[in-house]
Specification:
CATH class of one domain: Mainly Alpha
Radius of gyration: 21 Å
Strand order of the largest sheet: 1-28-27-26
Structural class: mainly beta
CATH superfamily of one domain: Dockerin domain
Strand content: over 45%
Number of helices: 4
């Protein structure tokens, strides 16, 4: 009764929005850093790959009441951190080129420090490390396998009594006409590896979103999620859901869509799809998707054939939210005037109530990462549990995070307070 009375009292008050817009993270990256290609978030911490005084480094940020602020820089040497991934209490980094597969950073009293090298188990075989993913206790590095025709292996590293050790190679039974591990993602005890057919190559039946679950001895193939004519070029997952790019008319398609599957133990059930007739998906950039807490972020090209070259500039970033039984797109985002980046949306990440968008090809590959308020990009920003309604359950979410920051910060002022509560009440009822 008290809650209902309070609601009736404040519905007459007006809604106030602050914030909004795309703001670059500072400081600006140096030439050759490709800042925004290596980008990940965990809670209120973000990390971006940089190049500082000709040394490759990682710049860490913390989300506070004043937004994202740089906290420290950790040098990683002469090889670029091409991809980064947070685990439960560590950061895995894939290094470009050949040599060791990557490095591991862990937090200490003095900040983040490099604690281990991820050793290449066979330098004569594995090279061109490209993507990193991490689960609660493992790091996965995608790379080229010189024994196969195409990039087709994922190296698995786990932390044990002797530190970080290589434990397993994940590769397809056949690499004929197949791009295996073109994209990877992991969460909890699950790894998802994308595999798609090679354009113009006959054969290639190894395609789809390959789901691996941690077993007693190693990571075991649980199922292959397939839809359309081909899928798997881009994948993303959290502990409850898997997302995959799909096509009805081939690898370089004029009919693209995103398919979702809900996880229930070791089984997966279709959870809907997102489609737009004029999307193309970027054939060069694999890290554009992120899913978390029922919200998806991803980059597209407004063209049938996708981003065919690194000079394509017509890129758009979307968020999508499942409201009841349907996925709905949020507000489309394009790069601010004056940046002209061909890499906008190459990487998207959500955390701290923010959406971070990487544009690594900006201005001679200096790169830039943009931030904006996540809630203001969503179709129904006050529906925190994505049930299609703004109701008491969503009020309780605001109350539970009162005075904090995060998803419940609807108006983007970096503080969950009465203004957000008023905004929620103004949106009361079924999402339109």
């Amino acid at each position: 009764m008290m809650i209902c009375s309070f609601i009736l009292t404040i519905t007459c008050l007006s809604m106030v929005f602050t914030g909004g817009g795309l703001i670059p993270l500072e400081p600006v990256a140096e030439t050759g850093s490709y800042a925004g290609q290596a980008l990940d978030v965990l809670g209120n911490t973000a990390v971006v790959g940089h190049k500082i005084d000709d040394v490759y480094a990682l710049r860490f940020y913390e989300h506070t009441l004043k937004g994202w602020n740089p906290t420290e820089v950790v040098e990683i040497g002469s090889r670029r951190g091409i991809s980064v991934a947070f685990g439960a209490d560590f950061l895995g980094v894939a290094l470009s080129g050949s040599g060791n597969a990557g490095v591991v950073l862990e937090p200490s009293k003095s900040g983040w420090v490099v604690t281990a090298d991820l050793l290449n188990p066979d330098p004569s075989r594995f090279n061109s490390f490209s993507l990193a993913a991490a689960s609660d206790g493992a790091i996965f590095i995608a790379c080229n396998d010189s024994k196969q025709q195409y990039r087709d292996a994922v190296l698995v590293f786990e932390r044990g009594g002797g530190g970080w050790q290589f434990v397993q190679t994940i590769a397809p039974w056949s690499a004929s006409c197949t791009l295996f591990a073109e994209d990877i993602d992991a969460a909890g005890d699950m790894l998802v590896v994308g595999a798609t057919r090679v354009l113009g190559c006959s054969g290639g039946n190894v395609h789809g979103a390959y789901v691996y679950i941690r077993g007693e001895e190693n990571w075991e193939l649980s199922t292959t999620l397939q839809d359309g004519d081909t899928n798997g070029k881009w994948v993303a997952c959290d502990s409850n859901m898997v997302v995959s790019w799909c096509s009805i008319t081939g690898p370089n398609s004029t009919f693209d869509y995103l398919e979702m599957w809900n996880r229930n133990g070791s089984s997966f059930v279709s959870a809907g799809s997102i489609y737009s007739g004029d999307w193309g998906f970027d054939i060069y950039f694999a890290e554009g998707m992120h899913i978390d807490d029922g919200i998806l972020s991803f980059g597209t090209c407004d063209s049938f054939w996708g981003c065919q070259t690194n000079t394509t500039t017509n890129r758009t970033v979307y968020t999508a939210q499942r409201l009841g039984n349907y996925w709905r797109l949020g507000t489309p985002l394009t790069i601010p005037t004056g940046y002209s980046s061909s890499g906008f949306g190459r990487n998207t990440k959500m955390a701290g109530g923010s959406l971070l968008i990487g544009a690594p090809a900006y201005s001679s590959s200096r790169g830039v990462v943009f931030q904006t308020t996540l809630a203001q990009t969503l179709p129904c920003p006050a529906d925190f549990n994505s049930d299609g309604n703004v109701d008491v359950a969503d009020i309780l979410r605001i109350i539970s995070n009162w005075g904090g920051i995060g998803r419940e910060d609807i108006n983007g002022d970096s503080l969950v307070n009465v203004t957000d509560l008023l905004t929620l009440v103004d949106a009361w009822g079924e999402c339109e």
